[in-house]
Amino acid sequence: MIEQDDFDIHTRLHTIVRGEDEAAMVESVGLALVKLPDVLNRLKPDIMIVHGDRFDALALATSAALMNIRILHIEGGEVSGTIDDSIRHAITKLAHYHVCCTRSAEQHLISMCEDHDRILLAGCPSYDKLLSAKNKDYIGVIRIWLGEDVKPRDYIVALQHPVTTDIKHSIKMFELTLDALISFNKRTLVLFPNIDAGSKEMVRVMRKKGIEHHPNFRAVKHVPFDQFILLVAHAGCMIGNSSCGVREVGAFGTPVINLGTRQTGRETGENVLHVRDADTQDKILQALHLQFGKQYPCSKIYGDGNAVPRILKFLKSIDLKEPLQKKFCFPPVKESISQDIDHIMETQSALAVDLGGTNLRVAIVSMKGEIVKKITQLNPKTFEDRIELIVKMCVEAASEAVNLNCRILGVGISTGGRVNPREGIVLHSTKLIQEWSSVDLRTPISDSLHLPVWVDNDGNCAALAERKFGHGKGVENFVTLVTGTGIGGGIIHQHELIHGSSFCAAELGHIVVSLDGPECLCGGHGCIEAYASGIALQREAKKLHDEDLLLVEGMTVKKEEVVSAVHLIQAAKLGNAKADNILRTAGTALGLGVVNILHTMNPSLVILSGVLASHYISTVKDVICHQALPSAQAVDVVVSNLADPALLGAASLVLDYTTRRTY
């Protein structure tokens, strides 16, 4: 390839000692160090350009440094997971000038004490060819290397090298990779490994599995670079541990599965999925199913196609009279973030907390809305005991999540009262939860669990639960009304939850439907809650019972038993006309509230949630037909099908805001 590019070759050195083990690598470096001084004395170069992180490059840099020859190192500052890391950084310390490919690599060089004035952020030189290659005639190249019947995006390119710091493990990973590729049953171009220690054993694995003669595989030792670019650009997937997979292939958006630790720490685009370790082929096979055939956005992390002109300009700017002595500085290192198959295989989950008037519940809720584990305790009456119990239950659930293979992304809390969700503070609560005003819920729980915490009103959480898991999924504008001990709700407008200027939006239970109605817990009169809540129905049931007008044939109330809304509903079902009238009045009040909502918000859907919803829906629909404007009567009114909207809503606070990619 060097000859084809018409270089004027001054000297040829044969320095690679065959053997493909650790000793052969050391001997190759030693042989190069013996031969290079004579060559460099004859050439007398002004600058030695050293590329990358291979052991033969270390011999070049060592010789040039000891002979006071300026060194320009290309692609320093990057991070990977093998002996190459140490070699690359050793060359950095020997080099006088640096050309790096990414912003993070530049920061790493600076943090390694290199002079910022001698560092050029140019991008990767190979990208100069890559970004102009994709539109070339690739069909012919695919046919040459993979066969006449293979189509673009329907084959795999596999390139895996030994990891010299853990040869035994890398051979095991290679064997599992080949097993997974055989099971996946797609045409695959397999390139032989490089000559590092362990490569002979990897070749033996290939031959033991019959890869060179398998109908689905094409095993080759070398592909010209121009053709290799086209092959990976149009592959359905690339798999292995070559730096090419995490660097160059990103230019095309080709899916990549990076195996093992050889490239650990390298910056990657979103096209790269990591499989750090595996005991069987299953994890690799799942990664193939996830990645094969996808098309990701093209990544320019490593370059924009203009590296070579920048490098030439940098070379021309070097002052050969400048002293060789280095200067040093110590800036911070910026970490890179990558994606890992182990995280995907875990169940991404949230800790959901429901603070009710009676019970305190904590659950592990999966991304699909499955309640994996639930813990219930009585809600303490004092602030201190309540906070202590919440933290204790959350810690217990988080520990249990590890055993259940659930990855907790954060904590969501549903509570009664008015909540400032931005600060995670309960501003003030209903009379059902004592000592629950001006309470910072976020800080103590976040500090204890080291997880992000979201807090919102229970009615809003019910609406969020419907948006993510229930009837509201995909609906742009809808309202949820929660019928329980009190009446609450939440409003979704243009797919977003409405909180209001003082976090008081969707207090739907306090819509006034009568100026002279019964007194509400809020202090007002005629609110929906004063008619249709569980407390209101209990009040009316007690009145009937005190007047001996509640019980009908088939009903009994024990002496010590508390009369409740349940008895009123039972009496109405058994034909008690007065009980039925009370339920109808409650339903009418709720219906009038819904009509007001329709005329204010004009949603396309109203969801009735909670234990009383099924008893009210018929009356609510009748009221809409008689009282709503014709243009608002087309609204759908349904009963929620969610078993536990409070916990699911608390979980959705977390799941909606912490996940980025969904599989």
UniProtKB/TrEMBL annotation:
Main location: cytoplasm
Catalytic activity: UDP-N-acetyl-alpha-D-glucosamine + H2O = aldehydo-N-acetyl-D-mannosamine + UDP + H(+); an N-acyl-D-mannosamine + ATP = an N-acyl-D-mannosamine 6-phosphate + ADP + H(+)
Entry EC no(s): 2.7.1.60, 3.2.1.183
Active site: D458
Residues annotated as binding an N-acyl-D-mannosamine: R418, T430, D458, E507, H510, E529
Zinc found in the keyword field: yes
Listed pathway(s): Amino-sugar metabolism; N-acetylneuraminate biosynthesis
Presence of the UniProt keyword Phosphoprotein in the record: yes
Binding locations of Zn(2+): H510, C520, C522, C527
GO biological process, one term: UDP-N-acetylglucosamine metabolic process
Domain of life according to the entry: Eukaryota
Record-level Gene Ontology MF annotations: ATP binding; hydrolase activity, hydrolyzing O-glycosyl compounds; metal ion binding; N-acylmannosamine kinase activity; UDP-N-acetylglucosamine 2-epimerase activity
Keywords, alphabetical: Allosteric enzyme, ATP-binding, Cytoplasm, Hydrolase, Kinase, Metal-binding, Multifunctional enzyme, Nucleotide-binding, Phosphoprotein, Transferase, Zinc
InterPro entries: ATPase_NBD (IPR043129), ROK (IPR000600), UDP-GlcNAc_Epase (IPR020004), UDP_GlcNAc_Epimerase_2_dom (IPR003331)
Cellular component GO terms, alphabetical: cytosol
Pfam short name (any one): Epimerase_2
Domain UDP-N-acetylglucosamine 2-epimerase: 5-316
Cellular compartments annotated: Cytoplasm, Cytosol
Subunit structure: Homodimer. Homotetramer. Homohexamer. The hexameric form exhibits both enzyme activities, whereas the dimeric form only catalyzes the phosphorylation of N-acyl-D-mannosamine.
Family statement: In the C-terminal section; belongs to the ROK (NagC/XylR) family.
Protein name according to UniProt: Bifunctional UDP-N-acetylglucosamine 2-epimerase/N-acetylmannosamine kinase
